[in-house]
Amino acid sequence: MGTNKHTQRKAKASVDEKLRLSTPSRDLLESLAVSCASKPSQDNTFQYAFALSKSDNARELEYAVTILDGLIKEKYEYQIDCMYGAATALYRLERYDEARTRCEAILRANPDNVNTAELHLACMEGADIAKDKKIKRAAIEGTVGVAAIGLALSVAGMMLGGKKK
After folding, report:
1. Which end of the chain is less enclosed by CB atoms within 10 A, N or C?
2. What does the alpha-carbon distance between residue 103 and residue 109 come to, in Å, rounded to a whole number?
């Protein structure tokens, strides 16, 4: 799958916008939770977990992954959808490598899945951005550390120089 940075950036912007617009309301999540508890079924559980996978709450996203993985282990009929929901939740948690791995598994089974292909590209871009941030943070921290050492040495030098008089 040949891609370039522009394609990845565009995919990430698109996925981020779609997820921003599809964040479930508290009322919807509550309604689905009640339905799931009062009428337990794999379908109700899936609907609840899939909605949770688009939440903006980290605990709900983690819970969505747990539920969706459980449905996969139980051989739920819509395993690809469970995998996509889990990949979406992992993406929202900024666990891009894990999300990307899920997307790749889906694409091996269903290479024409457009939404998964877009999420896969977004994961690649998200991972690149996270890596760049980490490098910049390390560079800034290193610079601050060197400056602090320089300042400490200067102060020590002045104190030692002042004692010689």
Report:
1. C
2. 10
> Tokens 């993985």 — which residue?
69
13: pLDDT strictly greater than 80: yes
Question: Measured between alpha carbons, how far is 79 from 58 in angstroms, rounded to an integer?
Answer: 23
- 3 state SS of 27: helix
pLDDT given for residue 159 in this prediction:
75
- Cα–Cα distance, 16 to 159 (Å, whole number): 55
More confident residue, 114 or 128: 114
Token reading at 114: 């457009």
Spatial CA neighbour of 51 closest among 60, 38, 40: 60
Above 80 in pLDDT, residue 113?
yes
How would you label 122-139 residue by residue, b for 16+ Cβ within 10 Å and e otherwise? bbbbbbeeeeeeeeeeee
Calculate the CA 101 to chain-centre distance: 12
The values of phi and psi at residue 111, to 5°, are: -65, -15
